Backbone:
């Protein structure tokens, strides 16, 4: 996989600073060029040139480590609403990925992405890597373990390709995860002894068939022909977003990769309830692939 351009918006916050770190690692791994963008949304109709120059200097300083490492960085200051400027630049640039921070580390704020990040997530047509604040993060750089959530949609197939590419570039392992959401809360499973034997047997047979089918489909996605990438496929039962976060915590995942389905009005509003919950609650970066 090739990533020619990485768009990294910055508002000079601590969350943005951590996103810069992730962008630099990606750019180094994929030999990409970083487009560092700061959008100025003035309260007045005019912006003083010195103020613009100051923003440009601050932005350039934020990416100094990248330039010292030989990574190409273009520093851009845009006038206008941040969401519009980010989406417009991502489109005109044909960005391979947008890397940006989330905000909030505790309490209610933990579940608030920040209006700019959330709107970019909803509307961007390229993959978006959301990065939690450094104080909340548990990930390591470069990545050592990549988790990829799979629901067998077209989007999640693209997510698998991204996960494998990230792992290959950083020497990480990959865990493909599929969560089965049964019509009962687990644990515990229903008491089969309370059901008529014929119904209980049919239910158990259906469950075995579903699990076996999902396992076979998941294993078929494993890249047997890719060298130096350790992969594993696993099934979990329960609520998808909760299981994804639990596995990420238990396996010390450094990044979660997941697909986002469709662009219908419901998806635009929620961008997928599972994705919504994972992005808001994860303590490691989350890459959403449309």
Residues:
């Amino acid at each position: 996989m090739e990533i020619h351009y990485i768009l990294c918006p910055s508002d000079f916050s601590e969350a943005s600073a951590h996103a810069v770190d992730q962008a630099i690692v990606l750019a180094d791994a994929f030999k990409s060029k970083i487009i560092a963008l700061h959008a100025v949304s003035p309260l007045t109709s005019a912006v003083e040139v010195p103020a613009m120059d100051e923003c440009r200097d601050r932005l350039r300083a934020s990416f100094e480590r990248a330039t010292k490492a030989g990574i190409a960085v273009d520093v851009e200051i845009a006038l206008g609403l941040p969401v519009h400027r980010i989406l417009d630049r991502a489109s005109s640039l044909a960005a391979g990925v947008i890397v940006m921070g989330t905000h909030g580390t505790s309490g209610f704020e933990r579940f608030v992405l920040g209006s700019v990040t959330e709107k970019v997530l909803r509307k961007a047509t390229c993959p978006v890597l959301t990065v939690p604040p450094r104080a909340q993060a548990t990930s390591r750089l470069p990545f050592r373990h990549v988790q990829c959530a799979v629901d067998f949609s077209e989007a999640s197939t693209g997510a698998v390709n991204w996960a494998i590419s990230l792992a290959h570039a950083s020497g990480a392992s990959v865990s493909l995860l599929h969560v089965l959401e049964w019509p009962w809360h687990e644990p515990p499973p229903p008491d089969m002894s309370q059901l008529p034997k014929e119904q209980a047997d049919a239910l158990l047979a259906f469950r075995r068939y579903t699990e076996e089918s999902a396992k076979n489909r998941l294993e078929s996605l494993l890249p047997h022909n890719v060298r130096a990438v350790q992969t594993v496929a696993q099934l979990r039962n329960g609520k998808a977003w909760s299981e994804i976060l639990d596995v990420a915590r238990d396996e010390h995942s450094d990044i979660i990769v997941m697909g986002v389905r469709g662009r219908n009005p419901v998806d635009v509003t929620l961008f997928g309830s599972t994705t919504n919950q994972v992005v808001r609650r994860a303590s490691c970066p989350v890459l959403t692939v449309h």
